[in-house]
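QUALITY CONTROL LOG
STEP: pairwise intake check
CHECKER ROLE: data steward
CRITERIA: each record must contain a sequence immediately followed by its structure tokens, with no blank fields

ENTRY 1 OF 2
RESULT FIELD BELOW
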Amino acid sequence: PLGTHKIVFDIIEFEWAYIEQSTLLFALLFSWMALGLAFSLQEMRKNKIAYNKVRKRHRHLEKVNSTLRTQNYEFAELAHRDALTGAMNRHAVQSWLDQQARQVRWGHDSFSILYMDLDKFKRVNDKYGHQMGDDILREFVMVIASSILPEDRLVRWGGEEFVVFCPNTNIEQAVKKAELIRENVEKHLWVHGELLTCSIGVAQMQNERVSETMARADEVLYLAKRNGRNRIEVNYGMQKQSEVAIEVS
């Protein structure tokens, strides 16, 4: 019949194998080293990711800084350059001219000015249009720049008028430089296919302001225009009482 059965155990015995102490210590040490290695590898991975992020950010910042430096340089250049021709503008040379004037006053240097413009340029504009005129002005700057020294300063003074400021240049050297420019302009093959010439007024700075030297150079530039164009006129100032014309054929 169904009922409740009762089982009684008198003895329970457990059996196991003993592990030697050295083996247990080795197993614990190995486990500790494995965990330590895994932790170190994980930390190295994290550090490598962080390092790569830092390097990437550093390269990005370098690129940004380089771009900014380039843009700042370009903006500074634009602020000191004539937008049409690429020649310097008046603002670009102001402080430099002040330095040159001091050198002349102290007797340490000679300084000359070439004041020039294209002959009958308005006729070119009227015949071919202002776009062609702009191209010719850019060519004019190119021809002048190829005829002067690196230390000279070529400045667009207004319209078709340009000035070359020549440090370490006396009046005789300035006249030779002006003649070289005049010849190169006359020989140049212009974009519109016709002959173009220029007139140049030359003056060396004496015991005066830059504006006074400029005025003397400007004066003889218009003298060159009145005397037939495609020529150089020189204002010797106090060196000679009269202006000396250099005939150019």
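ENTRY 2 OF 2
RESULT FIELD BELOW
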Amino acid sequence: MPIEKINPPELSDPVGYVHTLVATGTRRVYVAGQTGVGADGSVVGDDLTSQTAQALRNVGVALAAGGASWEHVARMNILVVGYEPSMADALFAGVGEVFGEEMPIAATTLYGVHSLFEAEHLVEIDCIAEV
């Protein structure tokens, strides 16, 4: 596998991400921000859980189109409209719908943002994979 995950003992134990990731792959796949829309372009629901699950499914489809899978993801950004810590349960419920207890671990940053490109969108996820 072209990815080495490192959590230095001098840093706190991360939950749901890795502090340092070294990618040595020969092919890099960039996935643009994916939102909670189905193949027909309609938003799947008006809640964070359903939109997160759909956005992750969309990322998976885009990764596969580039010859990658979740195990190849080195970097991921999650943007959530109006994020507050109280929203974490809804966000991770969407993650659980897609991955169960086996959430992929990458160098991940979660951003709270004012809005996204479309007003109905509550979450957007992009990533970079090394194959």
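INTAKE CHECK: passed for both entries
DESCRIPTIVE NOTE, ENTRY 2: The chain has a mean pLDDT of 93.
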